């Protein structure tokens, strides 16, 4: 069972609604949540470290990396909340 995420950080790249062609207001999809963006960045660094250092460091297996990335993303969101 997955835990419920209370704060996904909001949209990673919000696009404000505004006046565009013909004076119409468009409200676009806000895209991926900030949590997913943070997790993608964390996963990228975990994969880079695993490839660069290999057996020289204790790195997570490929099966563990996504979970580690989301743990890091959650920690970043928590730190962000505390800083605001």
Written description of the protein model:
With 84 residues, the chain is mostly helical. The chain has a domain at 32-83. The protein has two helices and two strands; from the N terminus they run ββαα. It has a two-stranded antiparallel sheet with strand order 1-2. 8% of the residues are buried. The model has no long low-confidence stretch (mean pLDDT 78).
User: Which ranges are low-confidence, i.e. pLDDT below 50, for 5 or more consecutive residues?
Assistant: none
Q: How is the largest sheet built, in terms of strand order?
A: 1-2
What radius of gyration results from the CA coordinates? 17 Å
Sketch the major β-sheet. Answer: 2 strands, antiparallel
* Oligomerization status of the protein chains: single chain
- pLDDT average, as an integer? 78
**Number of DSSP-assigned strands:** 2
- The structural class is mainly alpha
Output the number of helix runs.
2
Q: What best-fitting shape do the alpha-carbon axes yield? A: elongated
- The N- and C-terminal alpha carbons lie at a distance of 31 Å
List descriptors.
84 residues
Brief synopsis:
The protein is mostly helical and 84 residues long. It has helices spanning 34-53, 65-83, and strands spanning 18-19, 25-26.
Fold blueprint:
Elements: E1 18-19, E2 25-26, H1 34-53, H2 65-83
Antiparallel strand pairs: 1-2
Helix pairs in contact: 1-2
